[in-house]
Write a structure and sequence with these properties.
The protein has about 350 residues and is an alpha+beta fold. The protein has three domains: about 120 residues, Aspartate Aminotransferase, domain 2 (3-Layer(aba) Sandwich), CATH 3.40.640; about 100 residues, Aspartate Aminotransferase, domain 1, CATH 3.90.1150.180; about 110 residues, Avidin-like (Lipocalin). The chain is built from nine helices and 15 strands. The protein has an eight-stranded antiparallel beta barrel. Strands 1-2-3-4 form a four-stranded mixed beta sheet. The longest helix has 16 residues. The protein is globular and about 70 Å long. It starts with 7 loop residues before the first strand and ends with a strand.
């Protein structure tokens, strides 16, 4: 490393599998006196902190996640000299960090939340109850045909135990997003965390559930798997090649898609003016839903098309726009840039 390297930033969840892990970089960083910062926003602090103990100079945690502090706050732990440098460059001083000002009320809330998380018995009791809540949900799902469950935990990190639910697409005729939307419409309403979902799996997080709510979530989820006909619908045939026109917030753009259909499932390619993406989706009745994933580095573009066939064979609907990274593939990220209207007409087909 030369004098141009000011700091090394590592991501917590990538450390174990990365060839540039904290332990591998530490000797080089110390030799050249380059500080290492770990972004652990999605985890929670411990005492002693594992990252500082293992040699990092700074570690950053979100104030509004596990410790349940104020949403706009973050907590930086580490070397006093570096923490003071952060303070001097932030509000109330006239430096570049002033634009990221955190109010006094939010500072107090974050400090109190951190103190409770580390020292209060009630916070530890909450963490100890995560596994029983997960087990309450699992008992309703684990014996269903075509469904498997897995309790997930992470050694060395105070992160919630979660329940991963996976199903066989040949036996369960709906995807994760259809399940999520169905559970939101029904009563009682159940909101599934979508960050870690795949087309045939969901991950349930017990942090914000009481014991009674965990029981309710388990029963409601199991009911959806027992009554799949309320989610899945008969298939409709999609034309093999169509022109797509999108009406965005500022202007419109022509796209093109090529489609292959196998029963309810569709695949193909989505073409824009600057890139192409792989299509995957399905047809239910007169409705069609497909996603076009345009692989980019470091983030990928996502188009989620939802439409309905008209009597003349044309299709119209809405498309959700977003970007994703490998660890965040759920609808929240895929729809973070809003939606646009689209319509499509047949270019060529086989009848």
């Amino acid at each position: 490393m030369d004098s141009n390297v000011a700091m090394i930033c590592l991501f917590d969840h990538m450390d174990a599998a990365s060839p540039f892990s904290l332990s591998s970089l530490l000797p080089f960083a110390r030799e050249d006196d380059v500080p290492i910062l770990v972004n652990a926003a999605e985890l929670s602090p411990g005492k002693p902190d594992r990252w500082i103990k293992n040699g990092a100079n700074l570690v950053v945690y979100a104030g509004g996640k596990y410790i349940r502090g104020t949403q706009s706050s973050a907590i930086v732990l580490g070397k006093e000299r570096l923490c003071k440098a952060i303070w001097w460059n932030g509000a109330p001083h006239q430096a570049f960090g002033r634009s990221m000002k955190v109010g006094k009320e939010e500072v107090v809330g974050a400090v109190l939340a951190l103190n409770r998380w580390i020292t209060f018995r009630s916070a530890k009791n909450e963490r100890d109850d995560w596994l029983p809540r997960v087990k309450r949900i699992e008992v309703h799902l684990s014996l269903l045909p075509g469904v498997t469950t897995e309790v997930q935990s992470w050694t060395g990190s105070v992160t919630a135990i979660r329940l991963k639910v996976t199903w066989d697409a040949r036996r369960v005729p709906f995807d994760a997003e259809s399940l999520r939307l169905t559970l939101l419409r029904r009563r009682p309403r159940i909101l599934i965390h979508d960050f870690w979902s795949t087309p045939t799996s969901i991950t349930l997080d017990p942090v914000n559930l009481s014991r009674e709510e965990a029981e309710t979530a388990g029963r409601a989820s199991a009911r959806a798997f027992r009554e799949p006909h309320f989610i899945a619908q008969p298939a409709f045939t999609l034309p093999p090649e169509v022109d797509v026109s999108g009406q965005f917030l500022h202007g419109s753009a022509p796209h093109q898609v090529t489609i292959q259909q196998n029963g309810e499932l569709i695949s193909g390619v989505h073409y824009t003016g600057s890139s192409s993406g792989v299509i995957s989706g399905e047809v239910h009745g007169r409705r069609v839903r497909f996603e076009a994933a345009h692989q980019k580095v470091p983030i990928s573009l996502s188009y989620e098309f939802d439409g309905e066939f008209a009597h003349d064979g044309s299709i119209s609907g809405n498309v959700r726009l977003g970007v994703t990274v490998k660890e965040h593939l759920g609808p929240v990220f895929k729809g973070q840039y809003g939606s646009a209207e689209w319509d499509a007409t047949l270019v060529c087909g086989t009848g």
